[in-house]
Amino acid sequence: MNAVDGSSHVPQDGFASELEEELPSLLVLVLDTSPLGWGGAQSAGISLREAVASLLIFINSHLALNHSNEVAVIASHPTCVKYLYPVPGEDYSMVGRKSTVATGAESSEETNGHQSNGDQNEIPSDASMYRQFRVVNESVMKQLELLLLATSPSDIEHNGRMTDTTLMSGALSVSLAYINRLIGGVNDDGPKVRARIMVVSVCSDLSSQYVPIMNCIFAAQKMKVPIDICKIGNSTGFLEQAADTTGGVYMHLEHPRGMIQYLLTAFLPDRVLRKHLVLPTQSSIDFRAACFCHNKIVDIGYVCNICLSIYCEPPADGSCAICDTIFDPKNLAELLKKPVVVTTATQKFKAKKKKKKEFESIPGLTPGPS
Amino acid sequence: MQAPFSVPALYSKKKGTISVSSGRNVVEWSPSVAPLDAIDANGGDPLNGTVVVRLDDIAGLQASPATHAKARLRITTTSHTQFTFELPTRANLEALKAVLAAANAVSSSSSAAQSPSALGTPVPATPGAASRSGPTRKLAIPSKGLSDANLLADKTLQQSLMKSNGDLQQQFLDAVVQQSLPSDQFWRPRIPLLRMHSLVLAQRRGPYNVLATVKPVSTMQSEATGGAAGAAQVKVSLSPDKVRDIFAQYPVVRRAYDENVPPLVETTFWSRFFLSKLCRKLRGEKIGLNDAPDNIMDKYLDLDEYGTTAEQRELENENAKIMRFVDVEANEMDDSQRAGNRPDITMRQTTHKDTLSMIRTMNKLSQKIVESVEGEAQQPVEEQEQLKQRELALQDLEPARAVSHIGLHLHRSTDSLYSSTAGKAADALATQGNGLGASKALESMIDGLPGSTGSMPELLNSAVPSSSTISHAQSQVFDLIHARRRTEGNLRDGDDSVTPAGDAVTLRDLKLSHTTAIEFLHHFWAALLSGEPSRAVSALPLLVGSVEKSKVRLDAIVDQHVNQNAAQGPTKLVQEKKRVQGYVQITLDALQSATKTYYDLVKEQQAALTASTGQSENSTDTGTPH
């Protein structure tokens, strides 16, 4: 208790767990729909069709676990971020009924006016499927198809070659905002649902989105939302860090064709169950960051001590670009010095001879705290 | 206060006088003839060229040696400026030296006396302390100072820190004693630890209510507090500090003591005091009827803790009585809605007098203790007065002042850094492009979707692959789970069910050598990357040697472990060696890369040197690299 710092007041063990068992669970699925990525995945063994089918089965099982479980699907496209389910503006209580109700004038007025724009492309509905499943499946397929149809080849090309980007940071932000809205107020009875995010990613690392992705990761950590990553293709350092920081599962699929198996064993347990399970997540994590000036990935670099922004080399104008602190030129010069291991002996002696003995210190006369 | 001392002196070739003020805290040099437009770069007054140095700021004094022709004095301040004065005669120099030394001695003794000053007693300032304090804060700063040099030189502090931290002591023994790392270098990166430790040691207990801590201990098993007359023996331990604190906090006890002790013996006084009703009243306990009457102590029962009677208090307060109509504090408290119409508990006539006195005593005591805590949140009296005035002043009739908002300027230059479009060009451009054009890729994606072909059950069925794929996927998942369980099990439970028991000794030795190796690596890299030739010559060869020795040590420990289990066959030995080496593989790699970097640099720079000078001046070479 005599310690000067406050470390004895910080509780060392974890905080008490809340009664989470009774709350329903919300799953937000972020699907990466970058065409180049899926082209690569195709060569690895899985096509978009099979992947979407696996995901639909996964979503259905999630909904089946608890009657009040909820789900949301967000597509992360190179040009935009789009809700595949629930689509804003659609009234899901009415979907499916219009095919059986006669299109009389009265009944169509009774029904909610936002009805469908896609009547022509109606997927033949299977009346024997559980309604909740059917609604989600149909919505996801329809919206995904619309999204892909709306993309023109020029959107995803840059200088004649396809770009491997996807708006992952935007998708994560959108999903976090959705979760925040659904969780409800923090000051009344507490959160109404427990949320988690699952990302299916096929692209490689996006170093230009390092800062937004890190911000999303920290926000998810604060909200206690685990981010699971299902990775097909190259490994991404940022998403590994996301899973590790938020307590999620990172799985790099070696056999992408068996995606359904991965999903149902590794990714299905929700937050409450995970406390009691050993998670099959990858242990070795690539903690490299991207520098703020060139968006290059660095593992050894320079850090501003005020705002903690990362640089690959000391900034040329001597000040931090983010927080505008001016660095001490002496310190910067020291950082840039090259290591020296070999010197000549003569330099040392010459320096000594030049120093003329003008003054000698008076012992005992130097004032100061004694 | 001494007479001001002045002596003629030259400063930057100008004639003038050095004078030390009578308060002995300022040294000033003023020119005899005021220069017209002197701009003094060293901080002197630009108008008339005076140079003023406070005694507190002087960090060093140097004088030219006695054999030198000219008598010069150089004063170095804490802000690293130097003033050089030339004095006409050596006698002057000696006199000035004497004066400054005396002034310095006084000031340093006074600063040393101030830091361990007494705990919260409002006893007047200790004699001999120079009056430099005033309303300044006196924090618990250790007397020896907290600068880096002081901390490094303070061996006792280092030893006490090591005693309190066993790990640190181990590291010290290993690195400094066994491996001959200079102790200076060992402590240099640990200065924050030293600083914190010295602050912890310098903490003092604040003022507290002394009477509450004096607990009479009874030697018999009957009641603990004194109160029973007769046979019970009660022990009370009192130290002079406690006595002083009791006198300070309860002046009535002091008054009793002063009036009674010459006839009474001191021990009798204290024993009677602690058994008396007076003591119980001051503690705040109720005075029952079973307490023994004590004719001396009871005289003081009627006085309040300051020793004044009720009548005296009345007389004092009479002049301070405020008319109820204008008594702001009383009217604020007199709100009938706050707690009903019944007066506050302190205002009732039916409250027991003792309760009231106890409340009042405790409040007054706490207030006194808080006020006597040094420094912290004390507002000087003028500030308090000003605050009161500001609160009383009527501000409603002032003209309405426009609210001036603080403007926030958005710095938009970072938008380019954060936008995702900025890096699109830099992002992976289809380097492993599968040759498909963009439109084709899109087409293939859309084809897959069942909007046009197939129905939902068909689609969902297509998700299930062959059973071999499924088993491959499952085995990957389970492998990960097993690997995770092995590592996490150790972290969570703490009991190593996986580590073989025979490794314990080896692990301990490895840990120790690892810590030392890391220590040396720290110093090695610091010296190497600092780029200073002096460090390269002096420290670096030793550090490289230590780094290599660390590697040898680690290898030796691994070999020792393997030889212990030499009973098994050779293949098993190799396996065992690999396994144990796996514990410290990372450390070995780090040591390897350090030595490699060093020798590569040596080769490179030697080559450059020979190329540039054409001769081999490698007398500082540390031997042939291998």
TrEMBL record, chain B:
<protein>
    <submittedName>
        <fullName>Uncharacterized protein</fullName>
    </submittedName>
</protein>
